[in-house]
Write a structure and sequence with these properties.
The protein has helices spanning 3-15, 18-25, 29-43, 59-91, 100-105, 107-116, 129-138, 151-156, 204-215, 228-236, 282-293, 297-302, and strands at residues 48-50, 55-57, 92-97, 121-126, 143-146, 158-166, 168-172, 182-183, 192-196, 220-225, 241-244, 256-261, 268-275. It is α/β, with parallel strands linked by helices.
Length: 303
C-alpha cells in the first residue's frame, strides 16, 4: 500500500469530488482514478460509489478513512523522526584521538570549530592508533589524530599533516644517562631501547630504526610497549630508554627522567588528521582538519 494512494483516497473522501481532489493533489483526474482503483484492488473491496452526479463512501470506505488518516499520520511522524535522526547524525562528528592529552592540546581548534558550526556535536572517541583506523573503516569515527600515514591510508582516506613533534627521551632515573639534560642520538648506540608495539602504534618503531640508521647504528630493542604508561613502566624498571611525545611529561613518571635530543629533528613524531572523505559532513571535516593544522603545537609541547 503506497502513501500516494492513501492521500488520494483521503482527498476524494473529504471533497467527494474527483476534480476537486485532483486539483488539491495537483494531479490529473485519470491519475487519481488509477490510484483509487489500485488501492481498492489491493484492499479487495470498493471504497467509493461513483456516479455522474456524486461520489459517496461505501461502508468499507467510511471505516478505511479513519485508518487511512492514522496510517498517513504515522508515516509522516516516522518520516519526521527519520529526518531528525539523519540530521542529528550529520551534525555529529566522532573525533578519534589517543588519550586525553591529545584532546586537550587541540581544544582551542575544537572550540573554534564548534563556534563556526554551532549545530555540530563533537563526540570524543579514545583509542590506540590501530583502533582509530579500524573505527574510521567501520564508519564509527569521522576524523582521527594519527601518527604516520602510509600510502594505503592516503588512498583510503583524506589526510592532512598537522605537525612534526620532536621526541623526548625517557631515561631511568638511576642511570648515568639521567644526569645529562641533552643527548646526541649517536651517543646512545650502546643503549637498550624500549620500542612501540606496531600492532597498536603503526610506524613508531620505524621512527627509531630510521633515526638510528641515520646516526650510524642499529638500536638494541628489549621490549615493545603497547602505550605510554607501559613505556614509562619499562624505563622506571631500568630495562632501557624510551622515546616519547613531549606531552608524556604530564603523565605520572616516578623513576623516570626526561631529556632532550640535541638535534630536535633526530626523532620526530608525525601528527596527521585523517578523515573519511565519503562522509556526508566531509566539508566540515575538512574545516576541522584545517583548524587542527593551525594549532601551534610546537608551543603547546613546551608547556
Amino acid at each position: 500500500m503506497e502513501l500516494h494512494g492513501l492521500r488520494s483516497f483521503i482527498a476524494v473522501a473529504e471533497t467527494l469530488s474527483f476534480p476537486q481532489a485532483a486539483q488539491r493533489l495537483r494531479i490529473t483526474s485519470p491519475v487519481l482514478q488509477r490510484r483509487l482503483s489500485g488501492l481498492e484492488e489491493h484492499l479487495g473491496c470498493s471504497l467509493l460509489r461513483r456516479s455522474a452526479a456524486r461520489v459517496t463512501l461505501t461502508a468499507a470506505g467510511q471505516v478505511f478513512l479513519t485508518r487511512a488518516r492514522e496510517l498517513l499520520l504515522a508515516a509522516e511522524l516516522a518520516a519526521g523522526e527519520v529526518k531528525a535522526a539523519a540530521q542529528a547524525a550529520a551534525d555529529r562528528v566522532h573525533f578519534g584521538h589517543h588519550g586525553a592529552l591529545w584532546a586537550g592540546l587541540y581544544a582551542p581548534a575544537i572550540r573554534r570549530f564548534l563556534k563556526r558550526f554551532p549545530g555540530a556535536e563533537l563526540q570524543s572517541v579514545e583509542g590506540t592508533p590501530s583502533e582509530l583506523i579500524r573505527g574510521l573503516r567501520r564508519g564509527e569515527i569521522d576524523i582521527a589524530l594519527l601518527g604516520p600515514v602510509d600510502i594505503a591510508l592516503q588512498i583510503e582516506f583524506a589526510s592532512r599533516a598537522l605537525a612534526a613533534v620532536p621526541a623526548v627521551l625517557a631515561l631511568p632515573a638511576k642511570s648515568a644517562l639521567a644526569r645529562k639534560p641533552r643527548h646526541r642520538l649517536a651517543d646512545l648506540a650502546e643503549a637498550t631501547w624500549i620500542g612501540w608495539d606496531e600492532r597498536h602504534f603503526p610506524g613508531r618503531k620505524r621512527l627509531l630504526l630510521d633515526a638510528a640508521a641515520r646516526a650510524g647504528f642499529t638500536p638494541k630493542l628489549r621490549a615493545e610497549a603497547n602505550g605510554a604508561a607501559a613505556v614509562l613502566a619499562h624505563v622506571a624498571a631500568g630495562e632501557g630508554i624510551g622515546y616519547m611525545l613531549p606531552f608524556s611529561r604530564r603523565l605520572p613518571h616516578s623513576g623516570v627522567v626526561f631529556a632532550e635530543l640535541e638535534s630536535p629533528a633526530a626523532i620526530q613524531f608525525e601528527v596527521n588528521a585523517v578523515w573519511r572523505n565519503d562522509a556526508e559532513s566531509v566539508r566540515r571535516l575538512e574545516t576541522l582538519a584545517e583548524l587542527l593544522a593551525a594549532t601551534p603545537l610546537a608551543k603547546a609541547r613546551a608547556r
